[in-house]
Amino acid sequence: MDAIKTASLTKYYGKSRGIIDLNLTVAQGDFFGFIGPNGAGKSTTIRTLLGLTAPSDGSAQILGMDISRQKEEILSHVGYMPSEASFYRNMRVRDVITFSAGLRHKDCRAEAGRLCERLELDVNKKIRELSLGNRKKVSIICALQHMPRLCILDEPTSGLDPLMQREFYSILEERNKEGATIFVSSHILSEVQRYCRHAAVIREGRLLVSDSTQSLGHTDTKRVRLRGAGVKLPLELPAMKDVQTDGDSVSFLYSGSPKELLNVLAGLNLTDVSITEPDLEEIFMHYYG
Question: What residues does CATH 3.30.70 cover in the chain?
Answer without folding.
Answer: 222-288
